[in-house]
Amino acid sequence: MLQQRYIDREKSWLAFNARVLQEAGDVTVPLLDRMRFLGIFSNNLDEFFRVRFAAIRRLTLTGISGEKYFNGISSSQLLHDITEIVINQQAESLEILNDIEARLEKENIFTIDENDVTPDQELYLKDFFVQKVSPELVTIILNDLDHFPVLKDTSGYLAVKLVLNGLSDEIEKSSFNLRSLLKRSSKEKSPKNKKEILYAVIEIPKTINRFVVLPPEGEKQYVIMLDDVLRLNLDKIFDIFDYESVDAHMIKITRDAQLDIDSDLSKSMLEKIASSVKDRRIGEPVRFIYDQNIDKDTLDFFLTNMKIDATDSIIPGGKYHNRRDYMDFPNLGRFDLLYKTNTPLPLPGLSLDENIMKKIAAKDYLVSAPYQSYSYVIKFLREAALDPAVTSIKITLYRLAKNSRIISSLINAAKNGKKVTVQIELQARFDEASNIFYSEQMQMEGIELIFGVKGLKVHSKICVIERQEGNKIHRYGIISTGNFNESTAKVYTDVTLFTAHQKILKDVSKVFEFFEINYRIYNYQHIITSPHFTRNKFNKLINREISHAKEGRTTYMKLKMNSLSDIEMIDKLYEASNAGVNIQLEVRGICSLIPGIPGMSENIEAISIVDNYLEHSRIYIFGNAGDPEVYISSADMMTRNLDGRVEVTCPIYDEDIKRELIDNFDLGWQGNVKARLHSHLLDNKYRQRGNKPIFRAQLETYNYYKNMLNGEE
Question: Could you list the active site residues?
Answer without folding.
Answer: 459
